[in-house]
Amino acid sequence: VWRGAAAEGTALVEEEQEVDVGVPPLLRAVDKSSKWAVTVAQTAAVIVRHDTVAPFIIVGAIVAAYFASAAKKAINQRRPDGSPFTDPGMPSSHALVSMFLAVAWALFLDSTSWGAAVIGGAVCVSVLRVVCGHHTWAQIGVGASLGASMAFCWMRFGALFAYAQGDAVGSVAIWLLYLVGSAVFIRRALMKEKIGPRVA
């Protein structure tokens, strides 16, 4: 059993090294840290803004992330050959969630410069998934399209209630969903990192 596990671990390392060939270390590092960079940026928005908009957007992103996981299992499309991850790749969760957040903020801020900046950042996160061998172009394209569509619907829904501004019950509900959802999401992400390169 031990030899089988060791051989499997060696195979995974070899696969990961195969994907890394030709990819600069800096790009690999940026790709690996993108999930946490996005998390820190959204947390900073919550701290700076002192309103319910940022928590509302983050709750939507968490819903989008779980939708992406469910869609992956339902579609069950393999990742590119040589990817170190063994879970399905369609749609790309990184592309879906990053584009959801970018479009949501772009719609709320209603600023051409800010919109271009955040959407450009989401595009970079998505493209890196292909460059590093984790997804195909189709997988990030579908993920980004779904993320943008979901963000548009989510923000329209929030606008109907003005993001619960001035509504004590609505505000408390948003903050509770944000706190609980964030805790569950971060715990899930940390558990995935402990598992290793099997799940993205």
General description of the model:
The protein is mostly helical and 200 residues long. Helix content is 78%, strand content 0%. The chain is built from 7 helices and no strands. α3 runs antiparallel to α4 and α3 (53-75) packs antiparallel against α6 (137-160).
Topology, element by element:
Layout: H1 2-20, H2 25-49, H3 53-75, H4 93-109, H5 112-131, H6 137-160, H7 168-195
Helix pairs in contact: 2-3, 3-4, 3-6, 3-7, 4-5, 4-6, 5-6
In a few lines, what is going on in this structure?
By secondary structure, this protein is an all-alpha fold. Helices cover 78% and strands 0% of the residues.
Overall pLDDT, averaged? 81
The chain-level structural class is mainly alpha
**Residue share in β-strands:** under 5%
Radius of gyration: 18 Å
Question: How widely separated are the two ends?
Answer: 26 Å
Main pleated sheet: none
Number of strands: 0
Shape: globular
**Which regions are unreliable across 5 or more consecutive residues at pLDDT < 50?**
1-21
- Write the element-wise H/E pattern from the N-terminal end onward: HHHHHHH
DSSP summary: helix tally: 7
Helix content: over 70%
- Oligomeric category: single chain
Please name the defining characteristics of this protein.
200 residues, mainly alpha, 7 helices, 78% helix, 0% strand
